Structures are given as C-alpha cells and as structure tokens.
Amino acid sequence: MQIGVLDADRTAPPTTPAEGDRHIIASGATGSWAGHADAVAAYQDGAWRFLIPKSGWCAWCDADGALLVYDGTAWTDVAGGAGAMPGSVAQLGVNDTASAPNLLTVKSNAALFNAVSVAGGGTGHMRVQISKEASAKTASVVFSDAFSGRAEFGLIGSDDFKLKVSSDGSTFVEALAIDQSSGNAAFPRGLSLTGVISPSQITANQNDYNPSGLGAVSVLNLSSDTLRSVSGLAGGAEGRVIALINTGSQIISLLNESASSTAANRFALGTDLTIAGKQAALLRYDGTAARWRAMSRPGGRETLAASRTYYVRTDGSDSNDGLSNVSGGAFLTIQKAISAVAGLDLNGKAVTIQVGNGTYTAGVSVTSPFVGGVPVLQGDTTTPGNVVISVTGDAVSVSNGAELGIGGFKLVTATAGSGLNATKAGRINVTGKMEFGTCATAHMHSSYAGQIAVSADYTISGGSLYHWWSETAGGSIAVIGRTVTLTGTPAFTAFANATIVAQIVAVSNTYSGSATGSRYSVTLNGVILSSGATLPGSTAGTTATGGQYN
After folding, report:
1. Could you tell me whether strands 3-5 and 58-61 are parallel, antiparallel, or unpaired per DSSP bridges?
2. 167 forms bridges with which residues in the sheet?
3. Which strands, in side-by-side order, build the sheet including 161-166?
4. 3-state DSSP: the chain helix, strand, coil percent, rounded to 5?
5. Three-class SS of residue 31?
6. Which band of pLDDT confidence, cut at 50, 70 and 90, is reported for residue 256?
7. In terms of Cα–Cα distance, which of 139, 138, 144, 118 is closest to 129?
8. Which H/E stretch holds residue 340?
9. Is there a contact between 224 and 201 (Cβ–Cβ < 8 Å)?
C-alpha cells in the first residue's frame, strides 16, 4: 500500500500531532521515538504506532517533495537512480535535457538563489562556490553570445583572479588580474577614463567649484577666459580619482589650502598648482585628511636656453604659437601671450611680448609671479599712440607679487579702471615711452604695497581723476628725472593723490604743457615728495590728516 510522510528528518515527535500524521524517524531519535530510527511513526487514536520498513517500501516525503525508497538499510531518494550516491542524481535538467559534460542544465530567463533566514534555521548568508581540482585548473564563469564566449572571470589557470574578454569566443584578452596574496590589481591592456564633462568657460575665480554632473565623472575639462584660480573642488569621497584637463589656452591655478573654499573641498598640494593650457593634473581625494591631493602634475615648465619674443597682432589667432610676426603665427590677444610666458621658466633670459599696431579691447592681468625673470610688454616705443589698449576696467593690472615691464602703449579706460594698476605687492616697471589717454580712475594707481617705477619719458593726452594715485598700506609710485609732456590741457581732480600711508616720489622731472585741477592731494599719512617742484594743475594742492607734501 503506497504511503506518504510529512518529513524524514525529525528526531523527536511533534508536540501537537494530528490524527493520521506520519513521519520517518531520523537517526538519534529521543523521547517516545527513541530506538525507532527509519521506522514510520503513525499517530493513531492518540498514540504513536511504529511500522518497521522492509526493503522496497516506498514513501512520498512532503517536506522534500521526493519519493523515498527503503533499500534494507536506509531511505534514499528514488530520483538518485541506480548507483547514485544517497541524496544525489547523476544528471539534472530544468526545462531542458542534461547531458555530459553539462550534468546540470537549466533553461530559464532568470534564476534565484535565496538565503535561508536565521529565523528559518539558516545563517542568512548565500554563497555560490565554484571549486577546482588544483591551482593550474580553472574555476570561472563564462558569459556567451549564442554559446560563443565573450567574457570570463574567475581563477583561470592559476589562483589569481582574472577577467578576460573575447570577440570571437576562441581568443581571450586579459583585461584585469588581481594577485591572490597582495590584492594588487594589474590592467594589462590599459585603463580608460570615459566619464567626461566640459563645463562652461570659467570667467571668475572659483571657490567650492561644483559644475553640474561633477559627481558622476572621472574627467573634468576646464577652460578660462584669463588666468583664473580654483580654491576648492566639490565631490570628494575616499579614494576618488579625477583628471583635470585644461582644454583652453589660459592658465588655471589650483590654490593650496585656500580658506576661500570649505575645508573638505580644499587642495593639499604643498604649493599652488599651475595648469597651463593643454596641460592636465590627476587628483585623488584623501578621505582621512578631507583634502584633494595631486597624484600627478603637469609635465613641468619649458626652461629657456635663449631669449624669446612672442608676437601679438590684431589679425593673429590665439590658436597660433605666437612665435612669428605674421597673422598665421602671432597671437590675437595680449593675455594669451601673458599665459604663454607664465608657463615658462625664463631662466634669466630676456622675454619680450611684442604687440603690433592697432587697438586692443581686452585688458591685461598678471596675478602670479613669472618664474625665472620678468618679461617686457612692448608696443611702439617711438609712437605709443600706434598701439592702444582701450578697455572698461584696468588696462594693465599686476598683483600678488608679480612683476612686469611695459613700454610703447597708449592706455585708455572707460567707466572704471586705471591705465596701470599695481596692487598686492605687484610691480610695474615703465621701461619705454608711454602715452596716457583719458582714464576713468587714474593713469597710474598703486595700493597694498604695489609699486610703479617709471624710467622712461611719457605723454599725457587725456584727463582722469588722478594722474598718480597711491593709496592704502604702502602703495608707491616713483617717477624720477623724466620729461612728462601734457597735450590738450587734460583735467584732473588732483594730479597727484597720496593717501592712507602711501607715497609718491616725483623729483627732478620736467613738465611740458598744462593741466586743470588741483596739483596734489595728500591725506591720512600719505607722502608726496617733489623736492619743491611745481606739479601740473590750475589750483594749489591740499594736505590734511597727517599728509605730507615736500
């Protein structure tokens, strides 16, 4: 008579059996089942009855979903077949036919392995193990296209983890190898950084720089309209690596430990890192220090072995190299030439930026010192009016300890700005004849230890608030032994203005022509030294609040 049992692995009777329940008793039984291993326990009339199996008895086990047969010694799964190990099958096909060498074959659109929970008597873990016979053998997973291999990973011919790919299923290329002892990864075929963004051109110095899409890329293409700085970069996370590529022509400077950005976005570089046009740097985020660090820097500056001249023309192009005085070789903008020189080690050699005749409508800004020397910005030193810088804002500005020589230009500014502006310890040396046209603020302006030193004669053809304006914490202007020619009677609020602990030294000069307005204004401990000379102007000068005029 065919029977069914609820399970075949119990060693103790259930506490609340139901009438007619049957179980095959497992080895090691206790309680009322003790000594009845392999027997069929049947609950009848409120008591357990034990049926001793004979060889050939069959029973359906609900818990295992299997047909069991008693072979005279133990219950085994009928599906195991003749000669199979207990609890095993020689081949198994799921929705397909299994055949050697694929003794397990599954045809399905998906497969699920789910962990037995702790509450269900399991560990809550799920591991799939693929074991090989020896180190030189292979234990791997192969991904195929119509049974033609395209990718394989695992322990392939050794105990190092490897990843290989193939285009034809026969020839495989190793793309990744991880050493079993050290965990070091090798990329035999190279590494591609494919996540790239190219934000809009930087037109102002950046703090906590965070362009759209930064969090999901490995390459950040940058460009700027002039020399710009970045004091911090968002998106840092432990171990993140990002390549910064300057795709433009202007210098971009990463500022070291600048308080202008949030601490976690700052760069720890040892010193400011300059990325010139077409150069790149590789950064890694140090999560412990909460700082970006440089893994690699631009390949270094070109060190000059001889003097060099860069050319700028109104018919040039900033895509040129600037090394020849023709439209196909010269730069278009003066700032481009400044950026080119900033990427050099001048090595004590003379560097001249020769600017051709015409009008240039973009100002010149130098915000960091040149390496190995001081270049000269030169126009037409015979007739400066042939080379005009006419802008809104400063025509030429030098700051942050930088130094620049200049000569041969006519400077004009509208709305705001000065012809020459030296600030924050910047220094401008006027080495060639100049012409100062109408300027909104001053022809020459110095502040915060900025210095302007004039060692060439020059002409004034337009008015301004001040011709010389030196102010605030050590600004200095020195014009000594020069001939200053005024044309057209330009007007000034004051020809010379020194204020807030700043100075103007104007001695042994010759002034030709006339001007209207006050000759000088000196206040708040400012000093003007003229050694008794009369400065141009139509009214007397004034002193106040500690100002000194001598």
Report:
1. parallel
2. none
3. 138-145, 148-156, 161-166, 172-178, 185-186
4. 5, 40, 55
5. helix
6. confident
7. 139
8. helix 334-342
9. yes
Residue 312 CA to residue 331 CA, distance in Å, equals 5
Q: In what order do the strands lie in the sheet with 527-529?
A: 308-312, 351-355, 376-378, 403-407, 427-430, 451-454, 476-480, 503-507, 527-529, 548-549
Find the mean pLDDT for residues 235-241.
Answer: 95
- Give tens-digit pLDDT for 365-378: 999 999 999 999 99
Please choose, from the candidates 279, 161, 295, the residue with its C-alpha nearest in 3D space to the C-alpha of residue 240: 295
Euclidean distance between CA atoms 244 and 284, whole angstroms: 11
pLDDT at 299: 63
- Structure tokens given for 223: 């460009």
Helix (H) or strand (E) holding 244: strand 241-246
Domain segments of the chain: what residues? 3-81, 138-186, 203-296, 357-549
| Residues whose CB falls within 8 Å of the CB of residue 276, separated by 6 or more in sequence, listed in order | 246, 251, 298, 339, 342, 343
Q: How many CB atoms lie within 10 A of CB 457?
A: 17
Q: What is the pLDDT of residues 82-123, one digit of tens each?
A: 445 555 677 889 999 999 999 999 999 999 999 999 999 999
Q: How far apart are CA 232 and CA 266, in angstroms?
A: 4
| Residue with the two structure tokens 């983890």 | 161
- Helix (H, G, I), strand (E, B), or coil: what is residue 341? helix
Mind giving me the DSSP string for 251-296?
Answer: -EEEPBT-TTS-GGGBB--SS-EEE-TT-EEEEEEETTTTEEEEEE
Q: Show the tokens assigned to 205.
A: 């110095």
Rounded (10°) CA dihedral 408, 310, 439, 385:
40
What's the confidence (pLDDT) of residue 309?
A: 96
How far is the C-alpha of 129 from the C-alpha of 406, rounded, in Å? 76
292 φ, ψ to 5°?
-85, 135
Selected from 3.10.620, 1.10.8, 1.20.1260, 2.60.120, the CATH number assigned to the domain covering 203-296 reads 2.60.120
In angstroms, the CA 21 to CA 209 distance is: 73
The C-alpha angle 494, 425, 352, rounded to 5 degrees, equals: 95
Which of 431, 434, 445, 522 has its CA nearest to residue 477? 445
Output the six-digit token pair for 92: 């198994």
